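A reminder before we start the practical. When you read a complex entry, don't treat the lines as separate problems. The point of joint prediction is that each chain is placed relative to the others, so the output describes one connected object in space. Small molecules and nucleic acid strands, if listed, are placed in the same frame. In the example below there are two entries. Take a minute to note the order of the lines before looking further.
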Amino acid sequence: MNAVRKKRLYIILALVAGVAIAVGLALSALQENINLFYTPTQIANGEAPQDARIRAGGMVTEGSVKRSADSLEVEFLVTDFANSVPIRYRGILPDLFREGQGIVALGKLNADGVLIADQVLAKHDENYMPPEVTKALKESGKLKPDAKEGGA
Amino acid sequence: MPWSTVELMSNLMNWTWFHKLGSPKWFYEISGRWLPWLIAAAALLMVSGLVWGLVFAPPERYQGDSYRIIYIHVPAAFLAQACYLTMALAGAVGLIWKMKIADVALQQAAPVGAWLCFIALVTGAIWGKPTWGTYWVWDARLTSMLILLFLYFGVIALGQAISNRDSAAKACAVLSLVGAVNIPIIQKSVEWWSTLHQPATFKITGKASMSAEMWLPLLLSVLGFYCLFIVLVLMRMRLEVLKRESRSAWAKAEVGKLVGARP
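Here is the predicted structure of the whole assembly.
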């Protein structure tokens, strides 16, 4: 490489590095706003604003789903295994909603710390398994029955 | 060491191979020799990967058959990012060595990458509705992918808007280089921030998060998309090279051959 080309290479590297640093700084400054949802721990620490629409995300606690007998209202706990947030929702839940499944709920926190959700999204994990494999894993005891459904 | 190896080594070391690539005629000839093989590989890999994945792979335990869109979504998203990195690399080569063929590669790859990015976004939205319960959320992964689509539009628009070929090449190269910062953001978005989009299922290294009978067709499909991408870009580049070299004798002869071959 001759001197002129080397100089151009350095200019380009400097350009890319400069832009990368600028974008990195901007993103770290915006860190809070880029997260799609608050975790139950963040909500417990009071990081989530009251009286504003927020998203809460986590796993639906096993055995916490309580459906109303005469309406579509459903109540459940969402946990990150350190803290949990109760969520109340009226409406049709996505097909993938189940206990142990990751979800994101959009709504307002009320005074009792219950999130009144108007939208519940199911968060799929990166594990893709055919049904036979799940069955075989359960039978061999490698996957606890129901406990691991929905994955981590 | 046999003589040819020595020659090859010295060729590689004094960059002749690299400068040869810059010759449009040489590029046209060598790419013409590669194309049939690449087309065959693309067809074979894509047909086997997609038929296996869409028809024969087992359904997913929760999503049923709707997960099968992964066989198009993941390769398209992969290639949309790989294409942009290729363009950034071509941009750097174009700026440093003033190689014309790098500019041809950059500008011809852009529309292909934009289509791949568009396919990834649309298939993701179609999958998102039954799986998540929404077509779109403004999470970090989805938004950074949308920015990638706009970067592609930017490169295409810049290339078209500036009539001076050298200025257009320079502008596109700079935008490609600057925009490349977005690629690691797309990659890492699911780790850095909490997103609705799940982390990568398909990994080249490390344990795959899916069973082998689902993963293998996906691998074939990804490789097939890579070959298809190279085929499309080479074909577009060859056409552009002929256009740009239309005054030279070899290009005239080549066009004559192509036109004459038609009944």
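Discuss with your neighbour: Confidence is low (pLDDT under 50) at residues 145-152 of chain A. What might explain this?
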